[in-house]
Amino acid sequence: MTTTGIGSTTYSYNTYHQLSSETINLTGYGSATLSYQCNFVGAPTKATYTLGAWVKSVNYAYNFAGSLTGTGTDLLSGGSVSSRDK
Fold first, then answer.
1. pLDDT of residue 2
2. What is the number of helices (H) and of strands (E) in the chain?
3. SS3 at position 84
4. How far apart are CA 70 and CA 76, in angstroms?
5. What radius of gyration do the chain's Cα atoms show?
6. Is residue 70 within 8 Å of 84, Cβ to Cβ?
7. Half-sphere exposure of residue 7: CA atoms within 13 angstroms, side-chain side
8. How many CA atoms lie within 13 A of 67 on its CB side?
9. Is the backbone of residue 53 left (phi > 0), alpha (psi -120 to 50) or beta?
10. Each residue of 9-68: pLDDT tens digit?
């Protein structure tokens, strides 16, 4: 955990010592969390942003070689999806 004059940041790690979440607490304003889910090789498969009741996620897709092939998000109204050439 790191602490400053305006708040603190707490980091959490999984059993493989990879960052799994980061929570920022701002004095007088509440907290925001960014959490990660990874696949078996450690590549991120999902990032979730939480700020109070607001929760949004970004998903990541990979091909058999481990290259990023697409992302999907619900950050925009109705959602959006983009993908790269497979």
1. 67
2. 0, 8
3. coil
4. 16
5. 15
6. yes
7. 12
8. 6
9. alpha
10. 999 998 888 899 999 998 888 899 999 999 888 888 999 999 888 889 999 988 888 888
Taking CA atoms, 28 is separated from 53, 59, 70, in Å, by 17, 31, 38
Instruction: Using alpha carbons, select from 16, 44, 3, 26 the residue that is nearest to residue 35.
Output: 44
Residue 82 in tokens: 């983009």
- Which residues lie across from 21 on neighbouring strands? 12, 35
Task: Assign 74 a pLDDT band (cuts: 50, 70, 90).
Answer: low
Q: What is the DSSP string of 39-69?
A: -TTS-EEEEEEEETTEEEEEEEEE-TTS-EE
86 within 8 A of 69, measured Cβ to Cβ: yes
What is the per-residue burial (b if ≥16 Cβ within 10 Å, else e) of 21-30? eebbbeeeee
